[in-house]
Design brief:
With 276 residues, this protein is mostly beta strands. It has a single domain, classed as Jelly Rolls (Sandwich).
């Protein structure tokens, strides 16, 4: 089964007037991972597709997505699939087969055709954006990822950033994707906050213990809002919004950016004193 929902772009002036229910309906993806289902959300923010695929009852195929306007979803797109399940998963695309352990990522270039996923214990997080040229498929294991330690215990944000689809590791058209793992006792991510007007972002929170939450901050720096997020839920972050948060326990999250460039450092920092 394949299903797709559409998330339209929201202006910051509109977001200021939304209540909690409306904010969650527009920016939070609460049920990405449904057994036996390909569930995709097509966002008008840089045309990012964010989805979950759970092949619990046998192989599933991602192919035609009406919102892309093409015969097959990767005719003019690139994609990355991440196995966030406890079991090993298999992805077949472009005549090749790849095996993904937990938190391994598979990049697929434009023109890869239909994608078949399988693995009873696998859960695939799907990210896709428009592409302008074909780049060969590449499997990046968590051991292959570049690692960047950041933060510290004194500010409760000791963490390691694992860069997968990133200029430090490989080329892509516009996707930049990585995984951030917080250390024990640390709860804050991406603080100090920042903006990047040239790119949109999506966060998927994982490794959050049952009964624990992340408070994800969003909105303009002078008009911050928040979303209460649980394990394996994702947040769409528009270019005008900050994106940071704190959890009631340590956790990990997968971040994805798409837009005008792949420069990870192309951000506008927000001073701690400027947040409201």
């Amino acid at each position: 089964m394949q299903e797709t929902t559409l998330r339209r772009a929201i202006d910051p002036r509109h977001a200021k007037m939304m209540d909690t229910t409306e904010l969650r309906a527009e920016f939070l993806l609460e049920e990405l991972f449904k057994p036996g289902t390909v569930h995709l959300a097509y966002s008008q923010y840089d045309r990012i597709i964010v989805g979950g695929v759970v092949p619990s009852d046998g192989p599933l195929i991602i192919d035609h997505v009406a919102e892309t306007g093409t015969a097959s979803w990767l005719d003019r797109r690139e994609a990355t699939l991440v196995n966030v399940g406890e079991g090993t998963g298999t992805v077949e695309a472009g005549g090749e087969s790849f095996t993904l352990g937990r938190c391994d990522m598979l990049y697929l270039g434009m023109g890869s055709g239909p994608v078949t996923v399988s693995g009873k214990g696998a859960r695939f997080y799907v990210l896709s954006a428009p592409a302008h040229r074909a780049i060969p498929a590449r499997l990046i294991t968590i051991e292959d990822a570049a690692q960047v330690p950041l933060g510290g215990r004194d500010t409760s944000n000791e963490r390691v950033i694992y860069q997968f689809v990133h200029p430090a590791v490989m080329e892509s058209c516009q996707l930049v994707i990585g995984l951030t793992k917080l250390g024990p006792g640390s709860t804050w991510n991406t603080m100090p906050a920042h903006l990047h007007e040239r790119r949109s972002e999506a966060y998927l929170y994982i490794d959050l213990p049952e009964g624990q939450n992340v408070i994800h901050l969003m909105g303009e720096p002078s008009e911050t809002r928040h979303l209460v997020v649980r394990n394996e839920q994702a947040v769409l972050s528009p270019p005008w919004s900050i994106h940071c948060g704190a959890g009631t326990a340590n956790y990990s999250f997968i971040w994805c950016m798409a837009g005008d460039n792949v420069d990870y450092t192309d951000v506008e920092m927000v001073g701690m004193g400027d947040l409201r």
